[in-house]
Amino acid sequence: MAFIEPVTLTGRHWAVLEPLQLEHSEELIDAARDGELWNLWYTSVAGPDALLTYVKDALRMQQEQGALPFVVRRKSDNRVVGSTRYFNVDAKNRRLEIGHTWYSKSVQRTGVNTEAKLNLLKHAFETLDCIAVEFRTHWFNFDSRAAIARLGAKQDGVLRNHQLMPNGTLRDTVVFSIIQSEWPAVKAHLRWTLNKPGRETP
């Protein structure tokens, strides 16, 4: 039995995560057009011409490396508004990374990402019994770094000259993680964030 099996993760108010399928390609193209996310040089969001290849590569990673890519749907209108993924799966050591995450401009800084991460982390720690969950992002992706820190993840360090980007620049990668003993406090924080006074549900 595989460490990770395909699963749909449904939040209470904001987000549903469905296992990625080839048929989601057109919906993902529409999601990426909201904000023209492929123009952000420090991310790797595929443009309309490359989105089908992006999906095929994600599904190949699932088959060959045990990853699990998702599309993220906004519950209020059932629209696909982004994508995320379990990957770098280390079944022996019960570790994985959450990443390849991007969202339409219109849902950034809403409850979509918070609820999606809550459900991904809950499944990782409480169903898969992970001992640690990792997050990585580009040094210059300040929005992503702040969003990861808001989840309650702690910065482990920076991998200097970690990757060569498509535009020829070198990426310094910031590494964060949440460990198993921290999960109860992180879960309480995320639930409070989603339900705190003044936050509207969709």
Topology-level CATH name: Aminopeptidase
CATH superfamily: Gcn5-related N-acetyltransferase (GNAT)
Q: Tell me the CATH architecture.
A: 3-Layer(aba) Sandwich
User: What series of H and E elements makes up the topology?
Assistant: EEHHEEEHEHEEH
SSE class: alpha+beta
Summed up, the helix count is 5
CATH class: Alpha Beta
Envelope shape: globular
CA-based gyration radius: 16 Å
Percent range of helical residues: 25-40%
Low-confidence stretches: none
Query: Could you report the average pLDDT, rounded to the nearest whole number?
Result: 90
Strand content: 25-35%
Order of strands, widest sheet: 1-2-3-4-5-6-8-7
Our count of domains comes out at 1
Descriptive notes:
Helices cover 32% and strands 31% of the residues. With 202 residues, the protein is an alpha+beta fold. The chain has one domain (9-195): Aminopeptidase (3-Layer(aba) Sandwich). It has an 8-stranded mixed β-sheet with strand order 1-2-3-4-5-6-8-7, with helices on both faces. Strand 1 and strand 2 (15-19) form a beta hairpin.
Question: What characteristics describe this protein?
Answer:
202 residues; alpha+beta; eight-stranded mixed sheet; Aminopeptidase; globular; 8 strands; 32% helix
Quick structural gist:
The chain is an alpha+beta fold. It contains 5 helices and 8 strands; from the N terminus they run E-E-H-H-E-E-E-H-E-H-E-E-H.
